[in-house]
Amino acid sequence: MIKVGINGFGRIGKCLLIQLLENPKYSITCLNAPSILIDEIQDYLAYDTTHKHGIKIVVKILDDNTFQINHHVIKLFKERDAKKIDWVFLKVDYLFDATGAYLTAEKCADHNAPYIIMSSPPKDKTPTFIHSVNDDKYGGERVVSGSSCTTNCIAPMLRILDDAFTIKSCVFTTIHATTASQFVVDVQKKSSRSNRSLMNNIIPHTTGASSSIISVLPNLKGKIHGTSVRVPVVNCSLIDMNIELENQDVTLSDIQELLKSSKFYNTVYNVTNKNLVSSDFTTTNTPTILDINACIPLGNGKFKLFVWYDNEWSYSAQLIRLAETMHSFNNSIKEQKYYFENLDFKGKGVVCRLDFNVPRNKAGEVTDDFRIFSAIPTIKTILEQSPKYLILTSHFGRPKGSSPSLSLRFLIPILQKYLLKEVKFLEHGLTEKTLEEIKEAEGIYLLENLRFHEEETAYEKDDKICEKTVNIYKDLGDVFVCDAFGCAHRKHLSIYAMKYFEKPYGYGRLIKKEIEAIGSLINSADKKVLGIIGGNKIQDKMPIIDSLKKIPGSKIYVAGGLAKQYKKTNLENEIVVMSDGYGAISLDAKPEYINSVTESQLNVYDIGSNSLEWLKYYIKSSDIIFWNGSLGVIEHEDYKKGSLELLDFLFEQKDKTVIIGGGETASLITDKTGFGNVYVSTGGGALLEYLQNKVLHNKTLVGLEIYF
Q1: Are residues 214 and 306 in the same domain?
Q2: Alpha-carbon gap, residue 112 to 86, rounded angstroms
Q3: Residues 562 and 692 in one domain
Q4: Which residue spans within 10-149 are E strands per DSSP?
Q5: Which residue has the higher pLDDT, 334 or 635?
Q6: pLDDT band at 666, cuts 50/70/90?
Q7: How many helices (H) and strands (E) does the chain have?
Q8: DSSP string covering 410-450, please?
Q9: Across-strand partners of 452?
Q10: Separation CA 590–CA 602 (nearest Å)
Q11: How confident is the model at residue 154 (pLDDT cuts 50, 70, 90)?
């Protein structure tokens, strides 16, 4: 969901908010409207002289500065100084500035927001983008302009005509509806025309549309000239366009068919052959509506074209489309932007979020350091660029506040063993004391357990966030890296907040390897996929079984305790259930061979020899094997034999791609130094959730939204 804020609540701010109300892609989180009271919003939105939109509006006031409409819970602010609103803290991803007051990048710096869209042409070199014209060239710019309503009408027409027929010249006049900057009666001002009454006059006026057009269609420089007149109507404007094309054989019918064949027809372009007037185009979403009956063919590629637009409603619709384009780009896979090999670490303070949540026994000894070992390549690659310092951050366990038994200090000797370098401990965690410690920092540091601070896990809950703590994490470094795939399904401060820091960020080698490995499973066209799903909790495993069933050419082998619980239907030809096994009344009883696990009253604790041979047959017949969940109770010596035999067999399959899921399955592997064709994931729940999201919903993990 795209989270947006609106700054300014005049004509455009109002149209933006109303159009977003029923759009499930968007969530309006806050509104800055200095001149309105919260109990006035219902009537302000419901009644409008111009727009009879038919959208049902019911405002529910939650408190003195919060109201709700549909799924939008909106904070209301009444600030005239943008610096007093922390849009980032309010979870705004895209801010629509509808005031017309923030028209330079320097001025927009007052807005603490990740991305800002101006609702007017800029007064500096801020890049301008218009949906269907040049938004395909958007490259992640933070501050952009959506240009003007007139430019959003004329530029799409010029783009499509120039692409198809080549424009020689164009002179246009915008017959523009009045705006809020004009006056009801004559006033004493310096301007000789704009000070006159809007109710009784047609007023010649300037337009910045010519220069705005060139900013989005630079190839038309020198060919486009325009002016404007203001007329006494409250809304809807008309472009009178005199245009000459290089192709002299073009007819008006050709232009009409060109618009109708565009992929943007009925969104950006439209055509009317009815004898309509300006008010008939009120509250239309398309900004470029060609009036065929008003147009005049002049011969030899020359035309007088008349194009209608709702200068409020359709322009607001274009701004929303631009925000969607930006969001799509910023949340697509952009290896060049976010793979950390492309980040500059030299001389910088680097903060790297890793997953060091490793198992320990009662004596405090680490029983499996695979997650630490898997993070070492990322750490070494950063160090190769000679950063000023490197701070490693992680969580451990689920502490409620500071807890000495869950301190990360125990990791220091393990990290030093792998890195052969000194690692210093920042024992004060996310506090100002730590910021003081790193002022002259050099070398490698390990930060105390992130979960000693409530803000780490409560980041998405506004009422529990301490902004000071968030800013301390931001101030730890100049560049931020996340390589904690094992907890990437969590929207935690250290995982998710980096995109709001206005500092370079990316993800490490481990996450890249995880995504590529899972991608080979999902994008397995013409490959035979075998999913081996074990474990004991059927409710945990059904989503992954449903996901694998969606992959073409897949077969699923259900084993372990699941085999007794899984109820296979006659329609599930792609699913095989383990038939025999070993078990007993309890783990303390003597193991017995079970000929039929579904009919036996005994508990099933390991796979049977016959089922294991069939499983090996299916493995030999497959190209890609995904294994998640042990075949038995691997904590018990008598019941881990089947899982270990399967593991050895998988390592022998050199011509196949093998992916072993995290958690207990990965814990079977004692030698962590090299796996050849076998990929061992560091993610347990994260791996399964990522696979489910991608296959079933084409979505990513919440903690990876900043990248994908």
Answers
A1: yes
A2: 6
A3: yes
A4: 26-32, 60-63, 66-69, 72-77, 94-97, 115-118, 143-145
A5: 635
A6: low
A7: 20, 31
A8: GHHHHHHHHH-S-EEEETT-SSHHHHHHTTT--EEEEE--G
A9: none
A10: 11
A11: very high
Name residue 230's amino acid: R
In a domain, 623, yes or no: yes
> Could you tell me the two tokens for 287?
């900004």
List the 603-607 sheet strands across, edge first: 592-594, 581-584, 603-607
Tokens encoding 305: 């074209």
* Interatomic CA distance for residues 659 and 680, integer angstroms: 6
Task: Choose among 68, 62, 69, 87: nearest CA to 77.
Answer: 87
Domain that holds residue 207: 149-314
Q: Which of 122-131, 324-333, 687-696 has the lowest mean pLDDT?
A: 687-696
Residues 55 and 105 in one domain: yes
Under 8 Å between Cβ of 259 and 160:
yes
Catalytic-labelled residue, pool 15, 30, 108, 149 = 149
Residue 533 sits in a domain whose CATH number is: 3.40.50.1260
208 vs 296, higher pLDDT? 296
**Cα within 13 Å of Cα(640), Cβ side:** 11
Does one domain contain both 696 and 548?
A: yes
The verdict on 46 and 172 lying in the same domain is no
Pairing, β 269-272 against β 288-291: parallel
Q: β-strand 505-507 against 269-272: which pairing, if any?
A: unpaired
Residue 326 lies in a domain: no
Known catalytic residue: 352?
A: no
Residues 499 and 530 in one domain: no
The alpha-helical segments, DSSP class H, found in 467-508 are 467-474, 493-496
In the 8-state DSSP scheme, what is residue 591? Answer: P
Q: How many domains does the chain have?
A: 4
Residue-wise pLDDT for 183-213, tens only, equals: 899 998 767 788 899 889 999 988 888 889 9
- Pair 424, 408: CB distance under 8 Å: no
Around Cβ 670, how many Cβ atoms within 10 Å? Answer: 8
For the record, the structure tokens of 433 come out as 């004391």
Cα three-residue angle 176-181-186, rounded to 5 degrees: 95
For 353, 372, 382, 691, the CA distances from 416, given in Å and listed in that order, are: 18, 11, 16, 34
Give the pairing type, strands 94-97 and 115-118: parallel
Sign for the CA dihedral angle at 487, 142, 378, 346 comes to negative
Is the Cβ–Cβ distance between 158 and 239 less than 8 Å? no
Regarding whether 573 and 498 lie in a shared domain, the answer is no
Which among 441, 472, 507 is the end of a domain?
507
Give the separation between CA 179 and CA 208, rounded to whole angstroms: 15
Nearest to 61 by CA among 80, 37, 84: 37
